Amino acid sequence: MISPRHESISRVALREVMRAGRRPTWRLVFDWVLAAAGIGVAAWQLAPTLAAVDDLGARLAALHWNWLIAIVALSVGSLFAYGELHRRLLRSGGARMRVRTVQTVNFIADAFAETLPSAGAAAGTAYTVAALRSRGADTALSLWSAVVAALLSAVVLLIPAPLVFSANGLVTWLAALALCCALLVAVAVAWWVVRRPRSVRWVAHKIVATARHLPVVRDERWVREKPNPVDIVTERIAAFRMPARDWTWCVLVALLSWAADYVALASCVAAIGEPVPWSSVALGYLAVQGSIGLQLTPAGAGPAEAGLLASLTAGGMAAASAAVVVVLYRAINWVGLAAIGWVVFGVTARKHTRT
Asked: Where would one find the signal peptide in this protein (predicted)?
């Protein structure tokens, strides 16, 4: 646990996260217009292909239900594994929370992140920090674990990505290996810097000093406010350390989360009775995750469906079959999981209202 001084400083960090999730009216309108455009792009890409499917209803009714059960289980398991990653990070900082408590926060935060346009990730992080703090974790640890969980998951997915490109003929194997090595070196350098608070503080201040001169970044509190938010973030990074064994477990859990999600997508292909083009499925999966990461639309709606559809058809699947796979995967993995998160949110809110 951290000192009272650190806790008071971290309250300011929480305010910064909350402020990051707020949007002026014009930005909210723009976000919703962009979200509607993304959904429109998805419909534009999928509707003509689905319309060409002979007896779509009969085709959906012929889906293999054992595979559908597996898809749901794998999708839920993937999100559950991410919550377990978060819980292990909290435990490493001294906050021992029940699995049910962390998973409740995890599913609700995922609903925020996958539903709200543009600000979904910030809103999900803000909710995670506030919810964990209300359940007994200090603010600094909650913020640190949320950020580290997201970064660690991104790194675990990003490093092998060049190998997927190579398997689909987009780059040579030699170039893919070189990119993987370069990413590993970049991660190692970043880890070396993170373990040195002075280096982190110097880099952070340089970034802020440059960004504040850009037309879209005019927030002076990052420079003038006391205590300085930049120093707050760097102090938080320096406050926590984990042994190598805990980092190993966290990496394995992050890999398990991605693997379950990837197999869920492959199971969507199997559910319609088609052979699984594993490399094309992997490329489409990266397209979906990249679209989600850009945060332009809720859960990458539009670019995600277009990229997955293009990857599957390029891998040899018929356009009609590929469209059914896209709809099935996104209906379960995006709409379904978000719906579960909002149900959990409603149940939790009602329980808190009664108490």
From this structure: none
| pLDDT tens column, 270-306 | 998 889 999 999 999 999 999 888 777 777 888 888 8
Least Cα distance to 314 among 272, 284, 287 occurs for: 284
Residues 146-201: tens digit of each pLDDT: 888 988 999 999 999 999 999 998 999 999 999 999 999 998 888 777 677 676 66
Q: Are 23 and 118 in contact (CB under 8 A)?
A: yes
Taking CA atoms, 234 is separated from 123, 207, 219, 230, in Å, by 22, 13, 19, 6
Q: Which of 93, 129, 133, 92 is nearest to 109 (CA)?
A: 129
Q: Tokens 């329980």 identify what position?
A: 351
Query: Is the Cβ–Cβ distance between 107 and 83 less than 8 Å?
Result: yes
Contacts of 8 (CB under 8 A, 6+ apart): none
What are the residues whose beta carbons fall under 8 Å from the beta carbon of 39, sequence distance 6 or more?
A: 297, 301, 302
Tell me the whole-structure pTM to 2 decimals: 0.80
